[in-house]
């Protein structure tokens, strides 16, 4: 059975910055009988509390950083990279990943990026954890929770997950 990583809030875990969740009925009901899940909350994983102050992506001279939203003085970038590296043995076992949209940690696309002064630069960033995931596993099927409401994207994702699962078991 394929194993899918999933943003923990999409599974219904109350781990969001405001103490809420983003449970997806497709993930927790329709897909659940056919796969096993590995829920991960990268922000809780780096030791942030629930609830917690918001964080965002900031473009600095040496690249994109994950910082607090207030003044950017608290930098979570190294902690997130370390957490990702520690999770690699778990991530290597996955056949797909469903990430929560709009998150500076988990979002797959259209994430807001601010400049060093905190002014909005653009909305085409990628959450740091998901960026690392896609760099390390370029063929891993990754999809956002909201996009799975589209029947075509849903079918495509499921097909890619099962193909990836078959492939992984043939070569490993
Ligand atoms: Fe945690 Fe990611 Fe959900 Fe944010 S979007 S609460 S980091 S799992």
Automatic annotation (TrEMBL):
Superkingdom, natural source: Bacteria
Record protein name field: DUF1722 domain-containing protein
Residues of the full protein shown: 1 to 172 of 310
């Amino acid at each position: 059975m394929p194993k899918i990583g999933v943003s923990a809030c999409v599974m219904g875990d109350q781990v969001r910055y405001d103490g809420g969740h983003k449970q997806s009925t497709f993930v927790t009901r329709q897909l659940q009988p056919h796969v096993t899940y590995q829920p991960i909350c990268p922000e809780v994983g780096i030791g942030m509390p629930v609830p917690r102050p918001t964080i965002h992506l900031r473009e600095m001279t040496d690249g994109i950083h994950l910082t607090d939203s207030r003044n950017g003085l608290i930098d979570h970038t190294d902690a997130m990279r370390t957490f990702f590296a520690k999770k690699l043995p778990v991530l290597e076992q996955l056949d797909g990943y469903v990430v929560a949209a709009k998150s500076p940690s988990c979002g797959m696309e259209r994430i807001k990026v601010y400049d060093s002064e905190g002014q909005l630069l653009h909305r085409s960033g990628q959450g740091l954890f998901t960026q690392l995931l896609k760099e390390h596993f370029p063929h891993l099927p990754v999809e956002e929770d909201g996009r799975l409401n589209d029947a075509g994207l849903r079918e495509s994702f499921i097909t890619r997950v099962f193909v990836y699962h078959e492939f992984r078991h043939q070569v490993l």
